[in-house]
UniProtKB/TrEMBL annotation, chain A:
Any single Pfam family the record assigns to this protein: CO_deh_flav_C
UniProt source species: Streptomonospora nanhaiensis
UniProt superkingdom: Bacteria
UniProtKB keywords: Oxidoreductase
UniProt key word DNA damage: no
SMART domains referenced in this protein's UniProt entry, alphabetically: CO_deh_flav_C
Domain FAD-binding PCMH-type: 1-222
Name used for this protein in its record: Xanthine dehydrogenase family protein subunit M
Keyword set includes Transferase: no
Gene3D superfamilies: 3.30.465.10, CO dehydrogenase flavoprotein, C-terminal domain, Uridine Diphospho-n-acetylenolpyruvylglucosamine Reductase, domain 2
Ranges annotated as spanning the membrane: none
TrEMBL record, chain B:
Keywords of this entry: Molybdenum, Oxidoreductase
Top-level taxonomic group: Bacteria
Cross-referenced InterPro entries: Ald_Oxase/Xan_DH_a/b, Ald_Oxase/Xan_DH_a/b_sf, Ald_Oxase/xanthine_DH-like, AldOxase/xan_DH_MoCoBD1, AldOxase/xan_DH_MoCoBD2, AldOxase/xan_DH_Mopterin-bd_sf
Organism encoding this protein: Streptomonospora nanhaiensis
Source species taxonomy: Bacteria, Bacillati, Actinomycetota, Actinomycetes, Streptosporangiales
One protein family per Pfam: MoCoBD_1
Listed name of the protein: Xanthine dehydrogenase family protein molybdopterin-binding subunit
Matches recorded under Gene3D superfamilies: Aldehyde oxidase/xanthine dehydrogenase, a/b hammerhead, Aldehyde oxidase/xanthine dehydrogenase, molybdopterin binding domain
Domain (Aldehyde oxidase/xanthine dehydrogenase a/b hammerhead) ranges: 24-128
Amino acid sequence: MRPFDYTRPDGPADAVALVADDPGAAYLAGGTNLVDHMKLGVASPTRLVDVRGLLGNRVEELPGGGLRIGASVPNSDLAAHPAVRRRYPVLSAALLAGASGQLRNAATTGGNLFQRTRCPYFQDTTTPCNKREPGTGCSALEGHGRDNAVLGASDHCVATHPSDMAVALAALGAEARVLGPGGERVVPIPGLHRLPGSEPERDTVLGHGDLITAVDLPHLPVAARSAYRKVRDRASYAFALVSVAAALDVVDGTVADVRIAFGGLAHVPWRAHRAEEALIGGPATEEAFREAARAELADARTGRDNAFKVPMAVNTLASTLRGLTAEEAR
Amino acid sequence: MTTTPSTPSVGRPLTRLEGEAKVTGLAPYAYEYALTDPLYLGPVLSTVARGRVSAVDTARAEELPGVRAVLTPANAERLADTEDREFAVLQSDEVSFRGQFVAAVVADTPETAREAAGLVDVAYETLAHDVTLTADHPRLYRPEEVNTGVEADTEQGDPDAALARAAVVVDRTYRTPMEHNNPMEPHTTVALWDEGGGRLTLYDSTQGAHPVRHTVAGVFGLDPERVRVVAPYVGGGFGSKGSAHAHNVLAAMAARAVPGRPVKFALTRQQMFSLVGYRTPTIQRLRLGADRDGRLDAVVHDVVEQTSKIKEFAEQSGVCTRMMYAAPHRRTTHRLAPLDAPIPFWMRAPGEAPGMYALESAMDELAHECGVDPVELRLRNEPPVDPSTGEPWSDRALVRCLREGAERFGWHGRDPAPGARREGDWLVGTGVASAMYPHMVNPGSVAEIRYGEDRRYHVGIGAADIGTGALTALTQIAADALGRPLSEVVVSIGDTDLPEASVAGGSSGTTSWGAALVAAARVFRAEHGEAPAPGASARGTAPEDTATPGYSQYSFGAHFVEARVHADTGEIRVPRMLGLFSVGRVVNPRTARSQFLGGMVMGLSMALYEQSVVDPAFGHVVNHDLAQYHVAVHADVSGLEADWLEGEDPHAGPLGSRGVGEIGIVGTAAAVANACHHATGVRVRNLPLTPDLFLR
């Protein structure tokens, strides 16, 4: 571990100014991922700017029927919030599927979005990794590839995004409110995270110093019937092999509205626009669910160890939509 | 006479005597000893799997404030005896596996030590390495013997001819992965040389204080009396702490550079994946030849495993097949591939755990082939005497475990057809497997009893309690042997200042140390009577032959498992496990049950989760932490039940007890795999059983 300075500024604007002006600075929120990286040598910030006490820790109603989630709201509080549970159950379920109780108490809404990949080579400073050290090569391409991405990967990086919460937010079409050196702006999710391309070191579209202050959930009636399904090797405390966030509205056997995102498949929480388009207006049948999933995964590229993710994703989406359809029928 | 007859303590379900001290943080683990002015060790591990250290640049590390010493192969002291190359720490520039010690820093704080270790610049001449075990590895060889000292190969009758004529043949290959012990307390040593440099004290996390003393004394060329090892509380070991490892030597070398100051060294979780042993991956070919009723005529168990090139460890995976079932024709073989890999070592039930997975899976396949119920198949192959020696069994209770277990589990009426039961989205199946573990006793442990001014019997033995409850069990045994109530007996363990004791290994501890306590109590009562004067003392030694010769002595058991496999995702859940065991007399039902349950959970973990993934390009374990090396968590374990047959083994020594520490993991993985096959019709022959393998 390297020595570093620790600063607790007076407000978000001060924090942004501090980080923007210091290339060695990093924001600290819950610390559940960054502190690990500092111990492992994956990250060596020279200054930590603690923003946890500066940002909102409440969930508020928005005028149009949505919710604004302060960036410091702990994952456990967000999962338990009555409005979230009632109007966006997929988000609550996704949060509860992640990490452990202790970690969810510490982790924040804003911080969760900045989780970095758990690719074992990224986390091990003795192996090459383009995301950690650009230009050194990707060890996962030929190495242990069970967790590798099957959608949107590049020759430079095959890492997957680890967050469950972000998958739900992608399905819901949430928006991140970002405070940067140039002022405030809104970045949609999906759209916040980026595919690796030739710059895998960049997880998001944000620049150094940009700070997420809140996440807005839109008014979205279809989300009231939504679910998160996470498939993993053990029942708890493991990252997704494949996960599905889905919301479904079926009217007279026809899909009136649907939102779908996948986790575990890509460098980003993967909004499944293609599957949604295939389903809208069509029959809510097992066959249609599978057809839509296959359409979404048509461009999947698999390696030696991760080919299972394609059938697993198809089955998991079909299973999730089947469950939501049955729920609707009750 | 002032004594009153005491009710027996053995057999009572006492809670751990040290439990309160542990949960209130008052019981010091090795790293926690409050020693004056400690320094901290930061190791540098090799990042190549084979080659030579060509240069070590320590300049940047030495410039860091707070760094006291940097050890390298060039400046490290020459050790007295490094015939065992595990302990040849920093003795040459040779790199034999990735993750080997190549340098170390001693510093004022753990943070500085870690940072400085990262600043030591090591250059390598890299040589091509080989870290991949294959069934036909070109360098396979037959070891002289396998772990526990038995022969590598055995043959009875003509198994090839018997297989050729058998009505039913099962010929299958099963694979188990590399697995690592992950005790909660990492391997830790705090080393302190006295000012003169003649005496070494190690506060250690070990399963055997005396064994560590002997090893370290030998490596440094010291009289064993000059090495003290202190380890009263140990946070788990599972076999990996059953011997000294290189970190003990490195810590002692580092402390020698700063005499009079203790050097603390706890391995990180990641470092534990290359330095303290692991279970070898296994490739096991099982051939069973039987008649149509499932009666075995031939059993062949061929095992291929790996070892390190610098030190052999031969896991005895095929040995269980020598005695488990009746068959006139039989062969077992072990072959090792020497790899540029870390040194394998004990992991809970070495040999039996992977071996019985393969044998009991093959037995299930034979039952399926023959259309015979898997419990009945095992009953049909019950041997009247030990097939490997011809000796009578002391207490073979497999049949009772299977029958009574089946009754309690609700086995009867089971539809044998695989893939035939579905509840909602879940496919449901049940599986059975036998368990066994040899009765092992280590001779020569010594106990001392002293009657104190406090009117209590102070019993000392250098035994180890690695979280098992051994201290409590030994106190119960000592109380009964002295004929006194528990409140009058205080047992001290885990220190070489106490009389010599054998390792906590092979499920032998309670039996082996208990025999010494019984011997010491006999001497004490003979010499001092029932009303001793304060200061009265006596010593006793466990006999060479605690167990009666001429009998084949094993514990047995049966596992029954219900598994559910999700029809869409392949996820596996195990809502119900029953283990019924026969282990002779149970000294403490509470702590014994805990051992059975712990073994069964570890067996479940072996079945479904545990796998150390080696990257062939780099030669290291990729998933070297507990986020990635999955073990069973709370949510994975439910409906777990362990019980045992009441009784005692008349030939097992003065206590009539056999060990309880390991049998719980033996056969468990097979029962889970057999249940998954029954649920789905999919037979997976490689562990672990992960969801992707059951996708359809």
